[in-house]
């Protein structure tokens, strides 16, 4: 039986015996070798930290278990967040588990349908804000400052405490540090959390933090954040920020699916672009895949090959199969 994340790393987290553990079985996610994709991208040993296997399908659950556990310990009346989708789903799920109301603010029309559906199904109060993520976050912070709601965005330090544990798992499984860590860059909270995890372990492998060149409009909706609120922490971490196009993200996103059988949301593949460009030194590299492809089925429907209609007989099926391959 796998221990809940808080129990597994209790001595490295800000919890006490009085902290009620709110867990859905997060953490302990697979570290998968990707030999075919590694060969394509010119990396001898490519590993993928598959965070899509967390309970709500994204890495956000690592931090949310700590943030909501501490909120419950402190007697919070409710939790609140602004989100491009993954934080809202995670906050809603962990609040439901804790028996605490959740209010999630999402930019109107900017969040994928599956993420909205998750939050709604978990029973959160789902508010679509006429504005962008930054405006939604400003409102969430103001409500939290009134003392009735606990903000569970990554501005809450307990979130980053939980997220740093991905580094512990990677180093433990590899038996040492990789030559580089690569991950997407939206708000920057995960980048700063990874550096914190490295500092606590006494390692200093380069971190490549990959952002979209068109933050307000990128296809990669999970990193569609105009102003990265952890930009100073990212700079202080020494992370190497790489700015990429949507076309580059789409290319590696499709390669990951067709060469390794792993379906993630587009933003999750962003770290792979730095490898595609040949920017990363080292032979053993870990790319964090942050969220499942079922989070953004509209993009998959748009970019994946269309189904072929055929008659239900062997010859028709064979002809259709041959046409697909050609």
- Given the helix and strand composition, which structural class is it? alpha/beta
Task: Please provide the count of β strands.
Answer: 10
Radius of gyration: 20 Å
Question: What is the end-to-end distance?
Answer: 47 Å
Number of helices: 14
**Series of secondary-structure elements, N-terminal to C-terminal:** HEHEHEHEHEHEHHEHEHEHHEHH
Low-confidence stretches: none
* CATH topology group of the largest domain: Rossmann fold
Query: In the CATH hierarchy, what is the architecture of the largest domain at level 2?
Result: 3-Layer(aba) Sandwich
* The CATH top-level class label of the largest domain: Alpha Beta
Give the number of domains: 2
The main β sheet shows up as: 6 strands, mixed
| Oligomer designation | single chain
Name the beta content range: 15-25%
* Overall residue-averaged pLDDT value: 95
Residue share in helix: 40-55%
Gross morphology: globular
Give me the side-by-side strand order of the main sheet. Answer: 1-2-10-7-8-9
Please render the helix and strand layout as text:
Elements: H1 5-8, E1 31-33, H2 35-41, E2 45-50, H3 60-73, E3 78-82, H4 86-98, E4 102-107, H5 113-121, E5 125-129, H6 133-145, E6 149-151, H7 157-163, H8 165-174, E7 180-184, H9 189-201, E8 207-212, H10 231-237, E9 240-244, H11 246-260, H12 270-276, E10 284-289, H13 297-303, H14 314-325
Parallel strand pairs: 2-10, 3-4, 3-6, 4-5, 7-8, 7-10, 8-9
Antiparallel strand pairs: 1-2
Helix pairs in contact: 3-4, 3-7, 4-5, 7-9, 8-9, 11-12
Architecture overview:
The protein is an alpha/beta fold and 326 residues long. It folds into two domains: 5-58 and 158-302, Rossmann fold, CATH 3.40.50.1100; 60-155, 3-Layer(aba) Sandwich (Rossmann fold). It contains 14 helices and ten strands. It has helices at residues 5-8, 35-41, 60-73, 86-98, 113-121, 133-145, 157-163, 165-174, 189-201, 231-237, 246-260, 270-276, 297-303, 314-325, and strands spanning 31-33, 45-50, 78-82, 102-107, 125-129, 149-151, 180-184, 207-212, 240-244, 284-289. The strands form two sheets. The protein has a six-stranded mixed sheet, with helices on both faces. A four-stranded parallel sheet has the order 5-4-3-6, with helices on both faces. The termini are far apart. The model has no long low-confidence stretch (mean pLDDT 95).
